[in-house]
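Milestone M4 deliverable, item 7.
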Amino acid sequence: MANFDVVFIGGGPAGYTGAIRAGQLGLNVACIESRGSLGGTCLNVGCIPSKALLQSSENYHQVKHKFSEHGIQIGKLEFDVAQMLKRKDGIVSGLTKGIEGLLKKNKVTYIKGKASFVNPNTVKVALTDGGSEEHTAKNFVISTGSSPIELRSIAPFDGKDIVSSTEALTFDKVPEHLVVVGAGVIGLEMGSVWMRLGAKVTVIEALDRVLPPMDGAVSVEMKKILEKQGMNFLLGCKLLKAEKSGKSLKVTYEQEGKSKDLSCDKVLVAVGRRAYTDGLGLENVGIATRKDGKIDVNHHYQTSVAHIRAVGDVIDGPMLAHKADEEGVAVAELIAGKPGHVNYQAIPNVVYTWPEVASVGSTEEELKAKGVDYKVGKIPFMANGRARCFGETDGFVKIIADAKSDKIIGAHIIGPNASELIAELVIGVEFSASAEDIGRSSHAHPTLAEVMKEAALAVDKRALNF
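Output delivered:
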């Protein structure tokens, strides 16, 4: 038995980052991970592998559909799914080993196994290699992440044909017809991967819009763009059943009160994720979970048992790796007696379709509901010289500023490299910049970032190039 200053239960973005920061602060730290590899969902079956496949499929799509515009002629064009998967796995493996090295560098004890609380000061670890051991600590941090929501009664996962995002990363061939249940980030990203490689993709969404939490203008525009690329949408439709029917799958859904069927060979259920808190022995320490598996915490991430804290997907807030990362650092600093803090208004959200989608702060709909007086500047990429040179003119930059103070309170981008461009406006939100601050800052010409400047100027109705 070892006694630690702090034990992180879960080695995903919140857990391993928090453990590293705690180690930097001189604490005696352990990180317990049951998966067998560090990085959590993000690195193993989420952010990283999906982006690897998105990049491979986008490269293929560019060569097939856009190179000719640049005067580049290609002969017979083929792709190799096995090589795409091999490349993806190699990236994941390399990054996972890198995290192990970082833990070692910062003197963090890495324990492979599944932890559960015996009492408020002790966890028992069922070791991955067999056997078990117990460890005590002054502080514990629950950072066990989340898992895909399964529609067990109507579309239970079988690991092959009706799948979660995990299995959708490992298809050994391109589906002829992929039905995606859910028009959120995961559904649109994974749908894009297989659509680019030749699959017919149909997205069934219960709500009347794609990317439901995002700004309304983003939702409307992305539906148009993805439909132009070939994605089919059944919005305002409820999935009733997905089941095997001979050699194919039969999907039954409700549209305008009527039951309808369609046939496909794969169904991806992407209706969200659920906090993974099962099997932690929380009942042994008096910590309750909600129906969604989440744990309530205070502003210092403390549960009802003060020295047991929780961060990442197991608490409220967007299930984003970088949000979990920030919370991991903050909780480590709080445990070390420092002022850890996360500004949740400055957490960006990104969808890695093409074009990409990125946002930070409030949407127009949220501001209207709160009665906030605001002003908007919106500029299309069509007006940007670099975007035209790229041949990537879909989308826009939209900046929302407070009507009185001009402080940036929201920003929304659809466009090439939106995931990178949003960082400028995240910093703006973090440092309470005004739209005028962005508009008066020099942006190199020609760059995609000039659209940010123009949108900021447009807030005050003084755009120069549109």
